[in-house]
Design brief:
The chain contains 15 helices and 17 strands. Helix 8 runs parallel beside helix 9, helix 9 packs parallel to helix 11 and helix 12 packs parallel to helix 13. The radius of gyration is 23 Å and the shape is globular. It starts with 6 loop residues before the first strand and ends in a 16-residue tail after the last helix.
Length: about 600
């Protein structure tokens, strides 16, 4: 209701061994920022808060990977002597263990493993690059070697791939042009790529999986010595701001009724299965079981690459892959409206009724005086005074609590209308951060390019910088990593400088997105300078290096007639796919791109 940005969830892949039964090891919470509800979609726009920054102290900087994690990719039974400088240390707490590491003068200590059960404290002499699941242990990493040597923290830079990198047919959309563009980004300093692995493409029939096109994409990264962030996209692509594709959910999902988010007018949104239907049978499986089965198939297909080539897996948990409700439907919403609550389907109403019956059965229905998609808060009774009443607080607790429970459920397998109760003394992002922390996860947040002087921020009375700092403060307090993204593609130096200003608080940064325009000579030069800063350099315009490939416009408009024919064939597919669901609405707003 405060117009807080919606979230997307995903997780850093710290280990393969738990993916089969826990969805993966962590979730990256990606929140797209907006003020009193800024616009966005898979290419997201946002807005949000203050110019404060977290000062980088002279003390060693620590990064925790959450409970149940051990450092390195090797199993615990592997020889410690290969990875650790010392054994047999004991400490009363993880903080005491970290202090032992900081005090070592005869060795280089870069991290610790600590067991609260046995008080065992293992000091590491090798930089922590990965973790794996190990109950009872915690992995902590000190500042990178680069920071110790130069005084600057470093963050890896990933490039977000086009949404339709893999076509609805399950083929690479631009097989000739894509490698050339990736070569340009490699020359500009990118460390890896992020790509959406669409549910609707990879599981066309129940429990029949085909990841072959994504293996090709992963191999392109391998050839460039890159890392991969894979996005498990359980939502539809198409109908949101910036969407240039139409990839639906698997056909068999649409055979079910009553499993979709529904607004007060009874209109369903079919971008993502409602969280209130998590345990409703769709055929012979529940949605949670479908996600679990898909995760297991993915883990089996790429078992040799998890934790090495594929270093992070982001798990979609809502519209646009974000952990939020579809409150901003583009067919009804205009910037910067408050959106609408999405809890009028049968399963949501049953959940609300069960919760209310325990104390106040008269609270068993959603609020009424809430306005429409494009209203401002001051236009409504609920968002001016109603949310402060006992009923208002009860409803928002239930609404946001259902969202967090969904995150817990999916992990167990692996602004208010968006589900974020971030008002008064409530810190929505800290609460959701705690959900992921409990599951050994880390967070990913967007709108890093925005500052408070942006026109959008001023128009919507929002505060992008303050929102980013709210998230960074939450993760710093909880002691686990956070990654960053931009919400809108920008190429100007001011945007790059704003993004780079958060470098010392970020684990990595993913730039939205790979396009022809990005690979033009001048824009590539600015990206190269940004990557240099994120890698620990200073912000000065990098020298113009010779770009050997043709300008990206020619790279994608390949001269190969066979490829052009194939691409034209792919372009026909979205209409054919869309026709299978004639009742599908124009979709909704989303601020995180996946």
């Amino acid at each position: 209701s405060d117009g807080l940005p919606p979230l997307r969830t995903a997780l850093p892949l710290f280990a393969a061994m738990t993916i089969l039964n826990r969805v993966f090891l962590a979730i990256v919470l990606q929140a797209a920022a907006q003020g009193v509800a800024a616009a966005a979609g898979n290419e997201r726009t946002t807005a949000t808060t203050t110019t404060t920054t977290i000062a980088v102290a002279a003390l060693p900087r620590w990064r925790g990977f959450g409970p149940g994690t051990a450092c390195s990719r090797q199993a615990l039974q592997a020889s410690f002597s290969k990875h650790h400088a010392m054994q047999g240390q004991h400490a009363a707490s993880v903080y005491a263990c970290r202090a032992l590491c900081e005090k070592r003068s005869n060795i280089t200590c870069t991290g610790v493993e600590y067991s609260s059960a046995t008080s065992a404290c293992i000091l590491l002499d090798d930089r922590v690059r990965h973790t794996h699941h190990s109950p009872g242990w915690e992995c902590w990493s000190m500042a990178s070697e680069d920071m110790q040597e130069t005084g600057h923290h470093t963050s890896e830079v990933f490039i977000m791939m086009p949404l339709d990198t893999v076509s609805p047919y399950g083929t690479i959309t631009h097989p000739t042009g894509l490698p050339k563009m990736l070569d340009k980004m490699k020359s500009a300093g990118a460390d890896g790529l992020m790509v959406d692995v669409w549910w609707g493409i990879t599981e066309r029939s129940p429990k029949v999986y085909n990841f072959s096109a994504y293996r090709t994409v992963f191999d392109l990264a391998r050839e460039r010595n890159w890392k991969v962030q894979a996005v498990a996209s359980f939502h539809q692509c198409g109908g949101n701001v910036g969407d240039r594709c139409n990839i639906l959910l698997p056909d068999f999902v649409y055979e079910a009724e009553g499993i979709w988010y529904t607004d007060a007018d009874g209109e369903e949104d079919k971008e993502y299965i409602s969280l209130f239907a998590d345990e409703v049978l769709v055929g012979d499986r529940t949605p949670l079981q479908m996600y679990d089965d898909w995760m297991a198939a993915f883990a089996s297909e790429f078992s040799d690459d998890l934790g090495s080539l594929v270093t992070e897996v982001m798990v979609g948990m809502g519209p646009c892959g974000e952990l939020r409700y579809p409150s901003y439907r583009l067919s009804h919403w205009t910037h910067c409206g408050i959106g609408e609550f999405q809890c009028h389907d049968q399963h949501a109403l049953e959940s609300l009724n069960r919760t209310a019956t325990a104390g106040r059965p008269d609270w068993a229905l959603p609020p009424k005086e809430v306005g429409g998609y494009s209203n401002f808060p001051h236009d409504t009774e609920f968002f001016t005074t109603g949310f402060q009443t006992a009923y208002g607080q009860f409803f928002l607790d239930w609404y946001s609590g259902a969202l967090k429970d969904h995150g817990h459920r999916v992990l167990g397998k692996a602004k208010a209308t968006a589900g974020y109760y971030n008002t008064h003394s409530r810190n929505a992002y800290a609460e959701i951060a705690a959900v992921f922390k409990d599951s050994g996860a880390h967070m990913d947040f967007t709108c890093m390019e925005m500052d408070d002087s942006d026109e959008m921020a001023a128009t919507c009375h929002s505060d992008p910088q303050g929102l980013v700092m709210q998230v960074l403060d939450a993760t710093l307090h909880l002691g686990f990593p956070v990654g960053g993204e931009n919400a809108i593609q920008r190429f100007d130096e001011a945007a790059y400088q704003q993004m780079a200003s958060y470098r010392d608080q970020l684990h990595d940064f993913t730039y939205l997105r790979l396009t022809e325009l990005l690979t033009s000579r001048e824009n590539l030069r600015n990206f190269r300078a940004f990557a240099s800063v994120m890698h620990g350099g200073t912000y000065a315009e990098s020298e113009d290096e010779t770009v050997h490939a043709e300008v990206a416009g020619d790279a994608l408009q390949t001269q190969d007639g066979n490829e052009m024919a194939a691409e034209q064939s792919v372009q026909k597919q979205p209409a054919e796919v869309a026709s299978k669901d004639g009742t599908m609405k124009a979709a909704l707003r989303g601020t995180a791109s996946v």
